[in-house]
Design the sequence.
């Protein structure tokens, strides 16, 4: 039996790609979701995972060939895909439980870590939706993984029963690693080691004040290293200490600077300590913290301010919003105006759209606009590629679609990489004034703020106008003060007289 390897969906309006690299040769063994080849389109690189485990039997589209969507790339022979190389040695008790599905026609199949995205090599198991012994349908969500920036759901490769979970919640797994074992077909329910769970619950060990049992391997490692449970931060479910946590604690202890160099916590009374709650930072929050601090440590960051009278933009929006929605199927917001205004200004001040690479300045002759979006798990910055070539309607549709995917945690790593400039709208939360932090390696970020009626002097008369403060944070190593001020003035001019955008003035 063989499985076809076909070209996946390449993206809206993209119809063909070039086969860039094959990572496997005919005859090589492959696991489910293991990367087989890489395709290049006009704008993005697409990785093609293995649809099934087995052996790469044939490569139809060679490196350098141009292929269309759903074109045949190769074939996988599934014979022996549950062979000895994929089934770990079992104890006698486990061997007994794995014989039942064989009798009923079930087949043991690994559940693997899917592709996590470019440059992402590991993830944390956040939640298992299925327990050992539970059955599920093909493509039903089995668990959720958390990477530095996005959450990745792992679907069932086939219908069956969860036989054994190898990566518990809180554990770190590598790309291409194995998460669990399942048994295909309806006979797999007999393989679940149902008696294991009650044993774990019947003997909870209080460790470090927690009513949870730490991993046996972790307790052994702590005993050998002379560490107590309160010296190790548990990343497992409910704070359970895993073996990796002990290794990290030992590594941190060896590499940590002298205690005097660390910023100590303020003294906490016993009464206050009992009312505190300690929660481990998510991988996303840790990444946000690290990147923002790196930005401050690396760039010579400076912020300049201006204000814009939003009268004309608001009037134009109110006049055409109904017609715009009727024709394009998307609401006309302020973000498309700001995006267009920034693109206009970036053409005049290209330094703000450039980045530093060692001793070189890399000027971008395109605009990949990052739009900062707040989500329940933290701030992410989806990127609208080639925004300088898009219409108002295309920009609004892209912002709406990326924003919805960001809130649902569905953004891929590729969708958050490659930005050349960023817009952050703190005004939606009521911010009147702030200094945004650069999104490295970019050299500029525009902060939008709340629109507030203020008295303004217009032609000798005091009138009430809807005003917004703008803040441009920039890397002073590459952008001079004159360029930064010029950029903000051009944005202000374009927004106060939107006709300038049509005339490219």
Sequence:
């Amino acid at each position: 039996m063989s499985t076809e390897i076909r070209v996946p969906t390449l993206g809206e309006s993209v119809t063909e790609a070039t086969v860039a690299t094959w990572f496997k040769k005919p005859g090589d063994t492959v696991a489910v979701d293991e990367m087989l080849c890489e395709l290049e389109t006009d704008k993005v690189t697409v990785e093609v995972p293995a649809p099934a485990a087995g052996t790469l039997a044939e490569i139809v589209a060679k490196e350098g060939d141009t292929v269309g969507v759903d074109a045949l790339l190769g074939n996988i022979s599934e014979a022996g895909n549950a062979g000895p190389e994929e089934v770990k040695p079992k104890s006698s008790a486990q061997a007994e439980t794995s014989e039942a599905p064989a009798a009923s026609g079930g087949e043991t199949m690994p559940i693997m870590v899917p592709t996590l995205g470019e440059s992402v090599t590991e993830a944390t198991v956040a939640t298992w939706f299925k327990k050992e012994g539970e059955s599920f349908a093909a493509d039903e969500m089995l668990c959720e993984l958390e990477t530095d920036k996005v959450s990745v759901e792992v679907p069932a490769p086939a219908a069956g029963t969860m036989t054994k979970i190898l990566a518990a919640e809180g554990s770190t797994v590598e790309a291409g690693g194995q998460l669990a074992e399942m048994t295909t077909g309806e006979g797999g329910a007999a393989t679940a080691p149902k008696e294991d769970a009650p044993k774990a619950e019947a003997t909870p060990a209080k460790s470090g004040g927690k009513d949870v049992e730490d991993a046996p391997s972790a307790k052994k490692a702590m005993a050998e290293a002379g560490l107590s449970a309160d010296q190790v931060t548990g990343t497992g479910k409910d704070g359970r200490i895993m073996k990796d946590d002990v290794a990290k604690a030992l590594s941190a202890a060896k590499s940590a600077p002298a205690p005097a160099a660390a910023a100590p916590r303020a003294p906490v009374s016993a009464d206050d300590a009992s009312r505190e709650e300690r929660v481990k930072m998510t991988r996303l929050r840790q990444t946000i913290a690290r990147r923002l601090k790196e930005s401050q440590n690396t760039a010579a960051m400076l912020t300049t301010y201006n204000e814009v009278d939003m009268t004309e933009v608001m009037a134009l929006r109110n006049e055409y919003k109904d017609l715009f929605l009727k024709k394009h199927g998307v609401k006309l917001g302020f973000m498309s105006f700001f995006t267009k205004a920034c693109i206009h200004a970036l053409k005049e001040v290209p330094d703000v759209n450039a980045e530093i690479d060692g001793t070189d300045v890399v000027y971008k002759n395109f605009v990949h606009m990052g739009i900062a979006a707040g989500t329940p798990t933290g701030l992410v910055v989806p990127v609208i590629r080639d925004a300088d070539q898009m219409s108002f309607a295309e920009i609004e549709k892209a912002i709406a679609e990326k924003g919805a995917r960001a809130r649902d945690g569905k953004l891929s790593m590729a969708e958050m990489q490659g930005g050349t400039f960023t817009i952050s709208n703190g005004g939606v939360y009521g911010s009147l004034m702030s200094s945004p932090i650069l999104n490295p390696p970019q050299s500029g970020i525009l902060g939008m703020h709340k629109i507030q009626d203020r008295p303004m002097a217009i032609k000798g008369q005091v009138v009430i106008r809807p005003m917004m403060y703008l803040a441009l944070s920039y890397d002073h190593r590459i952008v001079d003060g004159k360029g930064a001020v010029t950029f903000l003035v051009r944005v202000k001019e374009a927004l106060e007289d939107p006709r300038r955008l049509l005339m490219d003035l």
Summary: The mean pLDDT is 79.
